[in-house]
């Protein structure tokens, strides 16, 4: 298989972690007989510095013409004082909207090797956690009408029937491939958009009779994630709620540096990235954890390229390295073997 991947390292540690992911991609290609080629593009703060825009037209066009996109991270304090329309984060919204990436998959997995990092009591977590958040990505309050005047400011949460239907179906389909439990999160006691959301979930549920569905208000869902996270399998929700809940779920695992994500459109094309930020204070110091980015490559193999064996191989390689007690600084505990960004990438590539 020949595939061309757009690389968007971005800012801070993005360059460091994407480099290690490419190292693993090259090893994977050799092992399974594929050919992966790459083109790098600017986005975020580095693009602002170079072009005056967070998302240059060349970057969006190059990503649209690729077979998949691997993103590092964008943003940092150096650009915090810029006006909102020039912030590095605008690159993310532009890429998601420009490529039609409406479905965000964010797994929150507590790896058995890192169980001690979980902030919850062992009796609450039990044997471990494996939650998938399915977040709508191109609608809602982040893309609605907004404005400011001398009296205040406003942001509009708006959804169409078709926008809700397509993400809810993704939630059901994801649940069918897992434990067949779907929790739909909304705020239907207050918001009209959430009332429509709940109606559509109820209307689509008979199409998926093997999936058990329940509904939670977002405030209760946030509480239940720390009270009894094992009740969740797949959570489907709108853009802002998904943004907040997926970050909460990631912290329950105790290791944000371990968690990948996928942003997909209808045809399976996707952009893959770690869920953590750019951590500019760590950039270039060989201390960042590349595992979330490497696992994002695994999701790329599974969801966009349709290569489950390759995805499994990456996940197994990561597990082998953790079993051998190698740790970057963010997941290090006494008695483990401390390694840097590059060494961790080398170890995972070797384990393949």
Order of helices and strands: EHEHHEHEHEEEHEHEHEHEEHHEEH
The helix-and-strand class reads alpha/beta
Taken as a percent bin, the fraction of beta residues is: 15-25%
Largest sheet features:
10 strands, mixed
How do the strands of the widest beta sheet line up side by side? 2-1-3-12-11-4-5-10-8-9
The number of helical segments is 12
Radius of gyration, in Å, reads: 20 Å
Shape: globular
Mean pLDDT: 95
What does this structure look like?
- The protein has 352 residues and is α/β, with parallel strands linked by helices.
- Helices cover 40% and strands 21% of the residues.
- It is built from 12 helices and 14 strands.
- Strand 8 (181-186), helix 7 (192-204) and strand 9 form a beta-alpha-beta unit.
- The two termini are 18 Å apart.
Structure summarized in a few sentences:
With 352 residues, this protein is of the alpha/beta class.
